[in-house]
Every structure is written in C-alpha cells, then in structure tokens.
Task: inverse folding
C-alpha cells in the first residue's frame, strides 16, 4: 500500500481508536491480553484496509473488524488469562457509579449479548446491527429486548442488596 | 445507585458516561500503529495456516529424502517399489496440504459480517484438523509398513517372500493395528488442546446468533 494510504489509515485509526479500546475492554480483562488483541485488531484492519473502499462508514467497518478479531481469537496461542474470565465475573459490588455498574453487568454477559448491547447502545439501528453481525433483525429485536430487561433486573437486584 | 427503578433512558445515560470516561480518551501514536501492523498475526486462521505450512515442509522433506534414498537402490526393484510407494504417499500429502494452504484466507475481512466470519473460521478449523488427521495416516501408516518391509528387503528377503511370510504379515498387521488408533487418539488430543476450546466457543456463538437461544 502507498505511503498516502498508510497515512490515511493511521489518521483514521487514531481518530477511531476508542472503538477498538471499547470492544477489547468489554471482552478482555487482562492487560497483556488487551495489548495483544489491540495489536491484532490493528494488524487485521491494516491487512483488510485495501478492501475498504469507503462503501461503509470507517467506524462501522472498524467495529466489524474489531468484533471479528475478538470473537474468533484463539486464546490458546500462548499462555494467557482466559477471555472467559470476564464471563464469570459478578457485578462489582464496590462499584458506586451507574456507568461502572453497567460496564460490569455487560462484561458478565455472553460474548454475543455483549456485542449486541454494545452496538445498540452505541446508536446502531437494528437493521444496521443485522448488517454488521449477519443475524436476522427479528433475532436482534428479541435479544436486545431480553438483554435490556436483564440489565434492568440486575440493577434492581443490586439496588435491593 | 440513587434510584429504585432503572430504565432504558438510564441505561443509555450510563453508557454515554461510560464511553466518555473510559473509552473516548484512548490515544494511540503513529509508532504504536506501525509496530502493530508489522507484527505476526495470532488469529486462529493465521495459526492454522502456519500449521499447514509446517506440514507442507515436512511432506516436501519426506518426499525429497525418500526420492534421494530411492536413487541409491535403483538396482533393487523391491526397494524401488517400496520407496516409490513412499514417495507417492508423501507427494499426495504434499499436494493435499498445498491446496489447503492456498485456500486459507488469512485476513479477517471487514466486508463480511461477523456470523459469516465465524462460520468461515469454524469450517476452516474443522477442515484443516481433519486434513491433518488424514495426512497423519498417509504419512505414518506407509512409514510403518515400509520400515518393516525395507528392513526385511535389506536383510535379503524379496518383497514377494515378505508377503508370503505369515510372520512378517502378522508383524505388519499388529504394528498397524496398534499404531493407527494411537495415532488417531494422539492427533485428536493435540488438536483438542490447540483448537478445541476455540472451536466450541465459535460453534456455540454461531448457534446463539442464528437462533433465539
């Protein structure tokens, strides 16, 4: 790829790095794994950048690459902490802030649910989520409704404790 | 938490706050990006491709080695036949691996949706693992048979005599019967360690995405 394309890529990634950071933070807890996955997303995005012809918004495209990378990542590539560890995490009892509690609750969900609620809360419409994920819109409608009910339920439980 | 009921609006507000506090200020410099794009990929597909590449080298190595050994036994037709079968077996293994290697698309594409990408990964993992199993059988079973027969031929037996000797045939059959299941079991075990969890996770996520489970 040309120098110009390389600079273009760097600028776009610098502008949208929050997306990569967000996806990884919701799937991985261990700092070393986070670093590895961040590098892997940057590498995968760079390799497929030549196919990005601007047919979609860069942020949506980067979301797709980041989620694809995280969800297909083989954690056995070296000795590291399980991605699953987050699955087993309970909502942090010491979290005082709603946003921090929400973060912990989302982290406790399964990988697919995490992806759906993240896209939904980031403002993607259900038809756009269907396009990104490949799921049917009907499935997405039902699942997002269920996930939100679960979040509300968890907040309620924490509130009553 | 300061209220009894939490609703959709509260979730949206909490998320906005989370994004602003936790994700919005993540900076990355040019140097870090450049380093990352020069690194080796650790994706499962990249790993699979690497595994196939190593087997490709092994197959090529075996084919060449046996072909070279064959040149030294051109005067002995039995050895030529034995080694010729070996060369053909390893060459078939090499060709199979080569086509698979060419077929593996290493990069994660931003143009395919996530479900499609997951299905591709699962399919590739399964097909490479089953090809490796077949490769193992192609490589090791003839090696066992050839090893026993070559030993006997070098001891002065003819191939015809070997096939007429029930003791030699029993040894061959016994070795094949012992080593084949052992080989299948060990390759299955190794594959499970390397990709089992990854494959299970992918398949479970695919089901979750395709159904309302």
Result:
């Amino acid at each position: 790829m040309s120098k110009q394309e390389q600079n273009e890529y760097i600028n776009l990634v610098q502008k949208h790095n929050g997306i990569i950071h967000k996806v990884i933070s919701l799937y991985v807890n261990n700092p070393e794994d986070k670093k590895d996955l961040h590098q892997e997303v940057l590498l995968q995005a760079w390799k497929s950048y030549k196919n990005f012809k601007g047919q979609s918004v860069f942020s949506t495209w980067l979301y797709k690459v980041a989620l694809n990378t995280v969800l297909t990542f083989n954690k056995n590539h070296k000795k590291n902490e399980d991605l699953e560890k987050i699955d087993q995490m309970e909502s942090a009892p010491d979290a005082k802030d709603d946003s921090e509690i929400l973060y912990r609750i989302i982290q406790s969900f399964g990988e697919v649910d995490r992806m759906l609620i993240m896209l939904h809360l980031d403002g993607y419409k259900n038809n756009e989520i269907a396009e990104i994920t490949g799921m049917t819109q009907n499935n997405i409608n039902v699942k997002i409704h269920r996930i939100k009910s679960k979040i509300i339920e968890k907040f309620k439980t924490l509130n009553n404790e | 938490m300061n209220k009894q009921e939490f609703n959709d609006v509260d979730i949206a507000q909490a998320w906005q706050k989370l994004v602003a506090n936790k994700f919005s200020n993540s900076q990355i410099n040019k140097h870090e990006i450049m380093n990352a794009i020069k690194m080796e990929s650790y994706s499962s597909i990249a790993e699979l491709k690497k595994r196939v590449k190593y087997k490709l080298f092994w197959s090529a190595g075996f084919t060449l080695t046996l072909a070279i050994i064959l040149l030294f036994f051109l005067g002995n037709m039995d050895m030529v036949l034995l080694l010729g079968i070996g060369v053909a077996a390893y060459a078939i293994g090499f060709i199979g691996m080569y086509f698979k290697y060419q077929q593996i698309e290493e990069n994660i594409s931003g143009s395919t949706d996530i479900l499609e990408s997951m299905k591709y990964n699962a399919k590739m993992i399964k097909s490479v693992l089953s090809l490796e199993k077949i490769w193992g059988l192609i490589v090791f079973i003839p090696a066992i048979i050839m090893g026993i027969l070559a030993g006997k031929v070098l001891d002065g037996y003819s191939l015809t005599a070997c096939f007429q000797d029930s003791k030699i045939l029993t040894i061959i059959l016994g070795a094949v019967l012992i080593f084949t299941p052992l080989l299948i079991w060990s390759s299955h075990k190794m594959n499970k360690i390397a990709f089992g969890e990854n494959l299970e996770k992918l398949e479970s996520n695919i089901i979750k995405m395709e159904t309302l489970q």
